[in-house]
Design a protein that fits this description.
Elements: H1 2-21, E1 46-50, E2 57-59, E3 69-76, E4 81-87, E5 102-107, E6 113-117, E7 142-150, E8 161-168, E9 174-180, E10 192-199, E11 203-209, E12 214-223, E13 234-235, E14 238-239, H2 243-246, E15 250-251, E16 254-255, E17 270-271, E18 280-285, E19 292-312, E20 320-323, E21 328-329, E22 335-341, E23 347-355, E24 363-366, E25 368-371, E26 374-379, E27 386-396, E28 401-410, E29 417-420, E30 424-426, E31 430-436, E32 443-451, H3 458-466, E33 474-485, E34 491-497, E35 502-510, E36 519-520, E37 524-529, E38 534-539, E39 543-545, E40 550-557, E41 564-570, E42 575-581, E43 587-592, E44 599-606, E45 615-616, E46 620-625, H4 628-658
Parallel strand pairs: 1-3, 21-28, 30-37, 39-46
Antiparallel strand pairs: 2-8, 3-7, 4-8, 5-6, 5-7, 9-19, 10-19, 11-18, 11-19, 12-17, 12-19, 13-14, 15-16, 20-22, 22-26, 23-24, 23-27, 25-26, 27-28, 29-31, 31-34, 32-33, 32-35, 35-36, 35-37, 38-40, 40-43, 41-42, 41-44, 44-45, 44-46
Length: about 650
């Protein structure tokens, strides 16, 4: 019984010491304890050792008279970010005089002064590593001293203040903390701990991984600042806590911060363990918007161990896209897969996972950060006929992930050669296309296409072929496809006669096989021209008598049976045409009766059509004359008249003689 009395007396004295030194107010008797005094380089003045940086330290009015100082010593870890600020009643932004001026000097574990902060009277000190940084980041692990001095030269008061030092955590980062449960139902130093963070995200998640050796009592969130109170509520861009809220006071949704198992908690902003090793998750949506300051408190129940925790405020997946996606790869060639991450804040891993047997088995590897937020990973060469499927998974430290899928085939490239028998053929004449592929006994498609005028430029054709838009340059959809087969050596041949004149191109295409990619040959162009026709003609006579027929005969070449031949007869003022048709040997004949006696010209021609050129024969001439009787009638009449006249004269003479 006496032992319990002694322990109770000691505990009372310890609590009284905490209150006197200003370490914590009465609402936190179970967590505000003074540990064994450390070795610090101070031999004079008042100082207090704060065992852990989680609670506010109250500096009462007149506790630090003008010209005096009080030093607060904390055990800090190198590289961690701590929020340090001193504010309260002594802060005065007004133009009045007689203000309190607290200056703060920082000393490292060796007793060397690391920095000092001497803002004007009434203004808060900026206690970052430098005056323009929001956080203090120790260079060493050990006891750092913060000496609060009431400046005798500038100060005119000793108003109350709150000195606060607490570790700051960034969202999306994992942290560790050793926790120890209560001993004999009483909290010990590592039973509780706390951190701060700020975010503009209204949604906050806290993930806590608890070891099997530890049973956590609770994890809690407290909103510590009201963003609507814009005046002087930030320091170096980070919100300041509402001062009464640091001491357990609450104003609706703000404040209430405490580390007492029986203290205030918000049910929507806490999580608990039912058994050792149960992980915890706080999923909280703030009822207000703005840059909110939070305090995160951890309280252990039984056992001990290291918890891992993360504050998540970023819920957007990384923006991930493939670069230069491979689709066709030749055998045994290593393939470099590249991906770009637009959003890579707190990117944790970039994993390439690939398979060559449709995910029956797979291989995973970490991609390498090359440059400009681009990550690369190699996939070894594979044999022909392999299909490689792969995924790229980007995961950030907040657990957000994005995945893109890709695949490519591994095959040999097939080269198709193509040749033409001629670059010019005539209508009705066959053109022979020959070529070869590396594969025998397969089918290819030969495509013949007539081009329109706008596609005659070679550059245009090259571009069209390279971009698979060649059919856009064909004329009137004049496209002919023919299936050809390769022989045992991979050679093929096709003879074909095209039915339109113009500029044509031909190319070969192949669908490929299991081990060869589909392929297309280069194009070859040729011209289909109209057949060049010729015609000759003759006449039966150079002269005909009016009323008789003139016969014109001739021959056309090449022979086209039933080809229409026009024979034109032309005199001085008259032109007439007669139609003849070529027979099976290419000859033609036409008879015509001229209707005037004059000189006539005659020639034959073939009109141009879609397949043949026009042709004109030589020109022949003939004369149409009158009949013989008509030509000599006067002479006959004259002769008859002369004979008659002589006969009359003879008759008269004879008659006279007889008379």
């Amino acid at each position: 019984m006496r032992g319990w009395s002694t322990k109770g007396f000691g505990l009372c004295m310890l609590v009284l010491m905490c209150v006197i030194t200003g370490i914590a107010p009465l609402p936190f008797p179970s967590v505000a304890r003074v540990s064994a005094l450390p070795k610090v380089p101070y031999t004079l003045g008042n100082w207090t050792y704060v065992s852990k940086p989680v609670l506010p330290v109250r500096i009462n009015a007149s506790q630090i008279p003008i010209g005096s100082d009080w030093t607060y010593v904390y055990s800090l870890e190198a590289g961690s970010a701590y929020r340090v600020y001193c504010y309260g009643d002594w802060i005065d932004y007004s133009s009045e005089v007689n203000k309190t001026d607290y200056d703060i000097f920082v000393y490292d574990p060796s007793g060397e002064r690391e920095s000092y902060h001497t803002e004007a009277a009434g203004l808060p000190e900026h206690l970052g590593t430098t005056v323009d940084r929001p956080f203090f980041i120790p260079k060493q692990t050990g006891d750092y001293s913060f000496c609060v001095k009431n400046d005798a030269r500038e100060s005119s008061g000793a108003e109350a203040a709150t000195f606060m030092l607490i570790e700051h955590v960034d969202s999306g980062m994992w942290y560790q903390r050793y926790m120890e449960g209560k001993v004999n139902d009483e909290p010990v130093e590592k039973t509780s701990w706390a951190y701060e963070f700020n975010t503009t995200s209204s949604r906050v998640e806290v993930w806590v991984e608890v070891p099997d050796t530890l049973d956590m009592y609770e994890a809690r969130l407290y909103i510590m600042t009201n963003p609507s109170e814009t005046e002087n509520n930030t320091l170096n861009g980070v919100p300041l806590a509402w001062e009464p809220g640091l001491y357990g006071n609450t104003s609706e949704i703000y404040g209430g911060y405490n580390l007492d198992s029986d203290g205030l908690r918000h049910n929507e902003a806490m999580a608990s363990c039912e058994y050792p090793g149960e992980d915890m998750l706080i999923n909280f949506t703030a009822p207000v918007e703005g840059n909110l300051l939070y305090h995160l408190a951890f309280i252990a129940e039984y056992g001990e161990g290291i918890i891992n925790f993360m504050v998540k405020t970023d819920f957007d997946a990384p923006e991930l896209r493939l670069l230069d996606q491979a689709e066709k790869v030749n055998p045994d060639n290593e393939t470099i897969i590249s991906a770009h991450v637009e959003k890579q804040f707190n990117l944790e891993t970039m994993t390439l996972n690939y398979t060559k047997d449709n995910w029956a088995t797979s291989t995973a590897l970490e991609m390498i950060d090359s440059q400009n937020q681009t990550y690369t990973g190699p996939i070894p060469g594979q044999p022909a006929g392999t299909v490689v499927n792969y995924t790229i998974l980007a995961r950030d430290t907040s657990g957000n992930s994005a995945e893109v899928l890709g695949s490519y085939a591994v095959k040999n490239s097939a080269n198709i050669t193509l040749d033409l028998s001629s670059s010019v053929v005539y209508y009705g004449e066959n053109i022979t296309v020959t070529g070869s592929t590396p594969v025998s006994g397969t089918n290819l498609t030969l495509t013949y296409a007539m081009l329109n005028n706008s596609a005659l430029n070679t550059t245009t054709l090259d571009y069209a072929m390279a971009n698979d838009t060649i059919l856009n340059h064909t004329s009137n959809d004049t496209v002919v496809s023919r299936l050809v087969s390769t022989d045992s050596s991979g050679n093929f041949s096709d003879r074909y006669s095209l039915n339109q004149t113009g500029t044509w191109i031909v190319w070969a295409s192949w669908n490929g096989s299991e081990t060869y990619f589909a392929a297309t040959s280069d194009y070859r162009n040729f011209t289909v021209k109209k057949v060049l026709m010729s015609i000759i003609c003759n006449i039966t006579s150079k002269s005909v008598t009016i009323g008789d027929n003139i016969t014109v005969t001739g021959h056309v070449y090449p022979i086209v049976e039933n080809l229409t031949v026009t024979v034109m007869f032309k005199a001085a003022n008259t032109t007439t045409e007669q139609t003849a048709y070529a027979n099976s040997n290419g000859t033609f004949s036409v008879s015509w009766k001229p209707d005037s006696m004059e000189l006539w010209q005659v020639h034959a021609y073939i009109a141009e059509d879609a397949s043949r050129s026009g042709a004109y024969s030589n020109s022949m001439s003939f004369t149409v004359t009158d009949t013989w009787l008509n030509q000599y009638m006067l002479y006959i009449i004259g002769g008859v008249a002369g004979v008659a006249g002589v006969s009359v004269v003879v008759f008269i003479i004879r008659r006279r003689r007889y008379e």
